[in-house]
Specification:
CATH class of one domain in chain A: Alpha Beta
Number of helices of chain A: 12
Mean pLDDT of chain A: 90
Distance between the termini of chain A: 42 Å
Strand content of chain A: 25-35%
CATH superfamily of one domain in chain A: Acetylglutamate kinase-like
Organism (chains A, B): Halonatronomonas betaini
Strand order of the largest sheet of chain A: 3-6-2-1-9-13-14-12
Family (chains A, B): Belongs to the aspartokinase family.
GO molecular function (chains A, B): aspartate kinase activity; ATP binding
Oligomer: homodimer
Catalytic activity (chains A, B): L-aspartate + ATP = 4-phospho-L-aspartate + ADP
Function (chains A, B): Catalyzes the phosphorylation of the beta-carboxyl group of aspartic acid with ATP to yield 4-phospho-L-aspartate, which is involved in the branched biosynthetic pathway leading to the biosynthesis of amino acids threonine, isoleucine and methionine.
Chain lengths: ~400, ~400
Amino acid sequence: MNIIVQKYGGSSVGTTEKIKRVAEEIKKSKEESNEIVVIVSAMGDTTDELLELAGAVTNKPDSRELDMLLNTGEQVSIALLTMALQDLGCKAVSLTGAQLHLETTSSHQKARIKDIDLSRIKKELNQGRIVVVAGFQGVTDDEEYTTLGRGGSDTSAVALAAKLDARCEIYTDVEGIYTCDPRLLPGAKKLNHTSYEELIEMASLGAEVIHPRAVELAQKYQVPLYIAESCSKAEGTIINGNIDYLEASLVTGIAVNRDDIQITLRDLEADSYILAEVFNSLAEAEINVDMISQLLDKSGRMNLSFTIPEMDIEKARELIAFYRKDWGVSDWWIRSEVVKVSVVGPGMRTQPGVAAKVFKLLAQSEIPILMVTTSEIKISWLVPAGYEEEAVKVIGYNFGLTLEKD
Amino acid sequence: MNIIVQKYGGSSVGTTEKIKRVAEEIKKSKEESNEIVVIVSAMGDTTDELLELAGAVTNKPDSRELDMLLNTGEQVSIALLTMALQDLGCKAVSLTGAQLHLETTSSHQKARIKDIDLSRIKKELNQGRIVVVAGFQGVTDDEEYTTLGRGGSDTSAVALAAKLDARCEIYTDVEGIYTCDPRLLPGAKKLNHTSYEELIEMASLGAEVIHPRAVELAQKYQVPLYIAESCSKAEGTIINGNIDYLEASLVTGIAVNRDDIQITLRDLEADSYILAEVFNSLAEAEINVDMISQLLDKSGRMNLSFTIPEMDIEKARELIAFYRKDWGVSDWWIRSEVVKVSVVGPGMRTQPGVAAKVFKLLAQSEIPILMVTTSEIKISWLVPAGYEEEAVKVIGYNFGLTLEKD
């Protein structure tokens, strides 16, 4: 029998009605003689509600206690979904991260998966049960509960699929991967198939359907992914293999990310040792840096801009306040109203001119550019918030990403 | 240093505001140089809300999955209370039943405590931390989550106090133990001190302040109990030792229990083997029988009435339908609108006439009596629902249980 790992996100299990619908979908998959492992997120806004409770008690919740609190969200979903499956006559059992022995590092809210002990899950599957696993959570080797941070449930699902040599289906509230968020680019096309690499670029740029961390893991272990709308007959997007360059389109999609902020440090010593210090300090505080731009001024001092996730703003503020003298920073500021617009396309590798064309389109639309970064298959522009819709439209229509222009 | 185990019930931690107030009380106890272990229940109506969610998904929730679901209630409380303590500058850590290794039987919703591994809790106390433990929950030796059923948090608290050789303080929403529920008997007096035995009789009869199971455990291990209102300066009730018969009052209190139903079986074979069968079947289904009344009719057949908790009504119904032919039952019925009124007093042992006086009072008030049972220090009358208030008043006023008559 084939093992299939299915992941249902929070919006797919947002109400007891939706949970019952999802249970019926799972039952169908089971009847196609598959062994099914289901990963569920917390219902709808549960995580936000729990954070609100914590916020009502303290301004600075301890990270261990926050994980203790957040873990309950998924535990509620797995119990309810398992009951719903049993109500349909399916044999099913729920498992928390701790019961699954999904072992993680002890870095609360950002734990990384170390290993998964398959003995319990295999035992349950062998007894013909559908196994319903709490996503997003794990346990350390000294029995502390952890959460995996952003994209945690996706990552749980892919990690389990990798260990079980299974296909991984991610069910969400959109039909699949689009060339661009249709709310931003009306008429954006759905992709029937894409590669891990393109999806990573799309996802890390805010496509929001699946977390890049999960896709990276899928790529590493070559786990076949299928992304589709839950409880829908519409065909989703298959993700596997690598880019077929012969067929590669110039631009696959556009992604928009509003989650970052820009930090600028002025007058650092022009010394690459100092740069290493800055990024090392940020890494040690577990702050992910995304875009980086560095320039020398006339006097030979260095100005540095970089973007980090908005959620880390306080940590970064403290860190810079602490080190600024060591680094020789004369002045620094945070610009939080920024948006990153990225153009992804494997064809860029072989066909030059995408950057030039986008720069021209942005200039014609008088869209200010704060920073630019490029990789092999993507180019990203940081623009002031408010300009992203115009940017997406002008790029989307000119690169054939909409149905109308196709 | 003394170890104190404090238990806060659901109404004491019903809102984040109340959690913060409770944290301040705990901080005060800690500052009196005690080592503090806190047991908390789920916030307010959380357990009911979770049951409602389960009910929206299925009519017959699996008991294992129900425990998976219910366990989240206390997990939320411990995380929030710990955060609130940390916010006040206290060192604190939360532990679930599983992390505490509070090992139970695998009987879901009615698990019994087998043992508690103190290593984790001692480690945390030695590091100066207040340990906040999830009440009501435990774990089996194969890592399944359980709940302890009614009075579970009280039982967790007393069991921990017994193992830690600690005093156990139960904080609730009433000032202590009263001669009778003041809502039923206006002017009912608060007791400053009572014995385990009297409290067991009071509690098992529905006094609702502490579960008899917890008091029995306290008595067994001679754990000193203190029952008081949370966040209040009012003196509570101390419970320790045994009854001092010299001083024993004739009647300590009156309790009312509305949680039972009465089952009547007609025309059983008059054979004590059959009776053993009936009660053995009920025991195997984990249905607690309370009052029992048995009578032979003229033809030599036996009629049997007994009371069981209302929550077990469906189980009992199935069981009787299954066995009635074996038992020779010609007819049977359930009377659910019944109330048990009990009079508790150690003085009854040495001073006869309490029963006679109560029978006379009930007859004068024209209160129908469905069943009667007696023990050394209590007498209970089952009456039709609706008559209990009159019964309590007439007994209370005539036995000096109110301030007015004192």
